[in-house]
What does this fold into?
Amino acid sequence: MTPDPTLDLSVVVPAWNEAESLPELAERVRAEAETAGLDWELIVVDDGSTDATWDAVASLNAADPRVHGIRFARNYGKAAALASGFEAARGSRVITMDADLQDDPAEIPALLAKLDEGWDLVSGWKQDRKDSFIKNNTSKVFNWFTSRMCGLRLHDFNCGLKAYRCEVTRHVRLYGDMHRYVPALAHLDGFRVTEIPVRHHKRKHGETKYGWDRFLHGFFDLLTVYFLHARGTSPLHFFGRLGTLFGGVGGLVSLYFLLWWATGHAVRVRPILVLGLVLIVMAVQFISLGLIAELMVSGNNPESSYRVRDRV
It folds into this structure.
């Protein structure tokens, strides 16, 4: 949808079985936006809820037409919900937050003020998290690992409370569990990203949607981000390095046994010899895979590989 320059703010809220939380959340968003004198809209994306979430959205819309709803036919995940909300958002600035009331709408003015300093994306940092011990500590590992791989030093990549300029939400593509990496994706595409501390509250209603499978999926998506963005658009550089490493080690092993045989010694089948041959075969496979991937990438539109910030 085309952005409306007269609309100051779009608040996008993915919701999955959050019927009890939505009325209070909408009221608090309304209060904060109107206190700040903002023209606003609230977009709730019902991600295939099985409770009365959609009924709550419909009631909120009937009471205030600035509250909009999008309903998925089934549960597609948070990334899909955010992508749909971003597409529908008309505001020049966009704020995302979770529907469970753990994110505080009172942080909206601070996030927008930081955005107005010249940043393109401002991520919340839950310094005092009100989550379980396991969730807190796995998140620390995740944030540390993501920071090192993507070159963006943030304390909390996966905080649901974020502020964006609409250019970011129009550019970043979300799928899978990529919602965890929006700051990293924006940073790797040349946007200016920072974070500020935000308040975090205990969940009032319902149950957490966190599970071990999400941690595993997030790890695989991190590898995707690293490969597609940090390594640019040349798959051969990535697979070629692996192939060169394996081929070098395998070649040295094979050369050792070749010299051993050339000096008159008997060469028997040994595990280290088999390993060297296997590494050479793997090297050929990796380099071949890189060449095939290079041919696929070369057929894509080159305009999609870079982002233009300004023109004169």
Remarks:
- The chain has two domains: 9-230, 235-305.
